[in-house]
Every structure is written in structure tokens, then in C-alpha cells.
């Protein structure tokens, strides 16, 4: 499935902070302990954090190292057959390869069911194939909004192999923004206004800074679930 994406540019103002301690289990990446434990989202204003923060979730350590390995074992054979592409069809992604998966081995399906149970209302119709996006270390995702023709009000993604920064910017007001710290093995969820009214992007390695802290980007695989348009 190809997603219709709209690329936009933006600027930033100084940040305020929002604590998102959704998970205090030992399932942490270990790379950024102080950031991971305290602050998962920063924003351009307290008002924005207040209004949009409820529609953005970051759950660090959502899966264990063992569960990450299970997912990678399932995904790597298919991904290795593909080349990284450095020109997306609408210039929204650079340095990527992708696939979709409808059927999963039972241990992976169990993990995905856990994602679905926390991200989507019970009984919500879900998009059948799960989207898998593999970003090269030099890859990045430019600002875009996923087309409402292909997916609904909620996007939920697991982050494998690397920490990264996702940036959300209001489409008609580029001075309003949120940065999300997506630690390795975390789950992020975007809903409603955060999904429709804000672009989202994954920063380049050289731009990957969160709250003044450098967050090195390696190869990153995201496993993304979506619901169907309403």
C-alpha cells in the first residue's frame, strides 16, 4: 500500500516539557535513561502540550528485547530481498525499504494484538496489512500527513533497532510543534487532531536532538498499525 503524503516545511520556537511516563517496567532501551524516565514529549507552548498531548502517547519499553528479536527474525528475510530507495514516489521518504504483512507467526501476532488492544477502541475496524518501514541509518522521513483515503484516526507504531525523534508540526501554524522521543522498543500512538492537523516526520541522524540531548539514529524499523477510515 502506498500512502498519499503531503510534504511541508516548518520552523521551531523554544520548548516546554511534558512528562509521559506510560511505562515504568524494565523494558527500556538503556541508551537514554534520564530522558526515557522523565520526558517523552516536548512542545512549543504549554497550551499545545495541554490540548494535543492527550492525543499523543509514547510508551517506552512496550516490548522486551526478546520480543524485538522475534519481530526482527520474522521481518529480516523479506527486507533483505529489497534495496534501500533514496527517492520516494512523492519525495516524502529518503533511504527506506518497506513491506506489508498480513500474516504473522503466533508470537508476533501476540505482540501486535497487544499494540491493537492499547491503541484502538475494542471492535474498531483495522486496516488488515501491517506496514513495515525500514529506514537506513542515513534515511529520514520528511514532514507529511498520511492520506485519510487510506487510514483512519489512529496510527500506532513500534520502534525497533534505534532511538529516534518524531516531530509533529501544525499544518497551518508551523510555529506550533511537538517533538516525541521514540526510544528503541517503544510504542507511539497518534490520534485525532495529532493525526489529521499535524505533519509528522522522523529526523535525520545529524538533526536528531531532543531537549538539548543528542539522540544518535541508527537503522530503524517501524511496525505500524492503522484503523480504517470512518
Automatic annotation (TrEMBL):
List the SUPFAM superfamilies.
Answer: Clavaminate synthase-like (SSF51197)
In which compartments does the protein localize?
Mitochondrion matrix
| UniProt keyword annotations, A-Z | Dioxygenase, Iron, Metal-binding, Mitochondrion, Necrosis, Oxidoreductase, Transit peptide
Example GO BP? programmed cell death
* Domain of life where this protein originates: Eukaryota
Report the protein's function.
Required to induce programmed necrosis in response to DNA damage caused by cytotoxic alkylating agents. Acts by triggering the collapse of mitochondrial membrane potential and loss of mitochondrial function that leads to energy depletion and cell death. ALKBH7-mediated necrosis is probably required to prevent the accumulation of cells with DNA damage. Does not display DNA demethylase activity. Involved in fatty acid metabolism.
Protein name per its UniProtKB record: Alpha-ketoglutarate-dependent dioxygenase alkB homolog 7, mitochondrial
Amino acid at each position: 500500500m502506498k500512502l498519499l503524503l503531503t510534504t511541508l516545511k516548518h520552523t521551531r520556537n523554544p520548548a516546554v516539557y511534558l512528562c509521559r511516563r506510560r511505562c515504568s517496567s524494565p523494558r527500556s532501551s538503556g541508551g537514554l535513561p534520564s530522558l526515557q524516565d522523565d520526558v517523552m514529549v516536548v512542545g512549543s507552548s504549554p497550551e499545545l502540550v495541554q490540548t494535543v498531548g492527550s492525543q499523543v502517547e509514547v510508551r517506552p519499553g512496550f516490548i522486551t528485547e526478546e520480543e524485538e528479536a522475534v519481530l526482527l527474525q520474522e521481518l529480516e528475510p523479506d527486507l533483505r530481498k529489497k534495496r534501500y530507495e533514496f527517492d520516494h514516489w512523492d519525495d516524502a521518504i529518503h533511504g527506506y525499504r518497506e513491506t506489508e504483512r498480513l500474516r504473522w507467526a503466533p508470537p508476533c501476532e501476540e505482540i501486535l494484538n497487544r499494540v491493537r488492544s492499547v491503541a484502538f477502541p475494542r471492535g474498531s475496524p483495522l486496516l488488515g496489512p501491517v506496514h513495515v518501514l525500514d529506514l537506513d541509518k542515513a534515511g529520514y522521513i520528511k514532514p507529511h500527513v498520511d492520506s485519510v483515503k487510506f487510514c483512519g484516526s489512529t496510527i500506532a507504531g513500534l520502534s525497533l533497532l534505534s532511538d529516534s525523534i518524531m516531530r509533529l508540526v501544525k499544518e497551518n501554524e508551523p510555529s506550533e510543534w511537538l517533538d516525541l522521543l521514540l526510544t528503541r522498543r517503544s510504542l507511539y500512538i497518534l490520534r485525532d487532531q495529532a493525526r489529521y492537523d499535524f505533519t509528522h516526520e522522523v529526523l535525520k541522524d545529524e538533526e536528531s536532538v531532543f531537549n538539548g540531548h543528542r539522540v544518535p539514529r541508527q537503522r530503524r524499523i517501524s511496525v505500524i498499525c492503522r484503523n480504517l477510515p470512518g
